[in-house]
Amino acid sequence: MEQKNHVYNNVLDLVGNTPLVKLNRITSQFKGDFYAKVEAFNPGQSSKDRIALYIIEQAEKKGILSPGDTIIETTSGNTGFSIAMVSIIKGYECVLAVSSKSSPDKIDMLKTMGAKVYVCPAHVSADDPRSYYEVAKRLHSEMKGSVYINQYFNQLNIDAHYYSTGPEIWKQTEGQITHLVACSGTGGTISGTAKYLKAQNPNIKVIGVDAFGSVIKKYHATREFDEKEIYPYRIEGLGKNLIPAATDFDVIDDFVKVTDEESAHTARELARTEGIFAGYTSGAAMQAIKQLSEAGTFGENDKVVIIFPDHGARYMSKVYSDKWMSDQGFFDSVNGAAAESIQYIK
Ligand code: PMP
């Protein structure tokens, strides 16, 4: 990173080197120490800044990309935002095919960052011509001089985390980390980080977080793609209806599945207890920690690192909206709405 007098040349100099923050209250009943890698501190507010910058710079080095070219991607939102941000600084056109499951805020953000956005139906199979994979492939074949990032099937997605997230965590924990817990979407984050950490200490345990309705956990256990596992769920960016080549299943020891409802409540609890306003999948990762602790996975001396992939501001119309929570049926007698914390003075 080139830095003169504490001035950054542009926002891309701020990618990576995110803080590791100790969790104190939400984990107070659990054995072990817990640390969150808060990826919202990236300039694009998510871990996807790392892969966008790394993959684009690798393409430049190989001479595949030159100024004015178009970069195409499929994305639940975060990768698109990061690619749009990198494209602005480096002078590329950015075209994004997104799932209709993505929040309206995310889609508006992509447009704000100058990207051209195609919104594709969420609940169609991956090989349907309307799926965001197929739409991106078609656009790539139609546009001359375009590059398709293809994060689900790009090994560079793993490498980006192998060369940044992994070494950062190893250094920040002074080599003391015993467990890594991370969500798996493309699998790039967990695979690259785990690969680096296990190369330093093969005893580190790596646990992936998957959604009910996703094929990933079963595939890891059986190497069987079971279509019967697939059904719609609400968490964005976690789990999959296909097997991504950007997941290295051999470096992941186990997977835990979490529900939409518990993950949503845990995301809200994170804000109230730790003051960390993180995204839905951060709630999912924290929910996995609760389940693992209850199952007796961690010991008193363990040091557990949990990756929080993005910022809570992206979910104001979802998990942080009482109306949305209520519409999903997520408020029941145990978890009442937070409405009583607002007093309207008339
Ligand atoms: N959380 C969010 C919010 C994401 O957008 C993603 C990426 N799809 C992930 C978690 C999972 O990260 P990865 O794709 O590296 O597995």
Automatic annotation (TrEMBL):
InterPro entries: Cys_Synth/Cystath_Beta-Synth, TrpB-like_PALP, TrpB-like_PALP_sf. Keywords: Pyridoxal phosphate. It holds the Pfam family PALP. The keyword Ribosomal protein does not apply. Its cofactor is pyridoxal 5'-phosphate. The keyword Cell division does not apply. Residues 12-310 form the Tryptophan synthase beta chain-like PALP domain. Gene3D superfamilies: 3.40.50.1100. GO terms for biological process: cysteine metabolic process; serine family amino acid metabolic process; sulfur compound biosynthetic process. Belongs to the cysteine synthase/cystathionine beta-synthase family. This is Cysteine synthase family protein. It comes from Pseudotamlana haliotis.
